Amino acid sequence: MKLARREKFLVLVAACSVAIFCILQFFVFPFFEKRRRVRRGISTKEQGLKEIVRLGSELRAYQKASQGVQRGLASRKGFTLFSFLEKAAGEAQVKARIKYMKPSSSSGTGPYKESMVEMKLEAIT
Questions:
Q1: Which member of 46, 69, 87, 109 has the lowest number of beta carbons within 10 Å of its beta carbon?
Q2: Cα-flanking dihedrals φ and ψ of residue 123, to 5°?
Q3: Which of 97, 125, 102 is nearest to 115 (CA)?
Q4: Measured on CA atoms in the order 10, 16, 17, 18, is the torsion positive or negative?
């Protein structure tokens, strides 16, 4: 089959158009889509990292405050709840109205010792 010059030109243009379409569809567009996804993933990871840094600094602040509380508790070596309540009752002038104070201790888990005192007062108005 013999094609005229104009027909050969049209076939060449059609073939180039199909080739350009295939290159765009299978190489260029997927490349840009992947790049967009990667950039979106990077921005999401950056936000997550900023949140981690913020939470880390918040944790350090809480740990610093906690160390202050622990130092305060450690400096109160001679503290007992029974004597504290007795002193507080004396300051509140209700020491004479105390019927009884019954100490009891419970074994707590962790670094702290938990103590309880049952106190019964009478004729308090």
A1: 109
A2: 55, 45
A3: 102
A4: positive
What's the pLDDT tens digit per position in 40-62? Answer: 999 999 999 999 999 999 999 99
Q: Is 123 left (phi over 0), alpha (psi -120 to 50) or beta?
A: left
Contact predicate 117/85, CB 8 Å: yes
What are the backbone angles phi and psi of residue 51, rounded to the nearest 5°? -65, -40
The angle subtended at Cα 49 by Cα 44 and Cα 54, nearest 5°, is: 125
Query: Given a cut of 80, is residue 118 above it in pLDDT?
Result: yes
Q: For residue 103, what are the contacts with CB-CB under 8 A and spacing of at least 6?
A: 81, 82, 115, 116, 117, 118
- The Cα 15–Cα 22 span in angstroms is 11
Query: What is the rounded end-to-end Cα distance, in angstroms, of the chain?
Result: 120
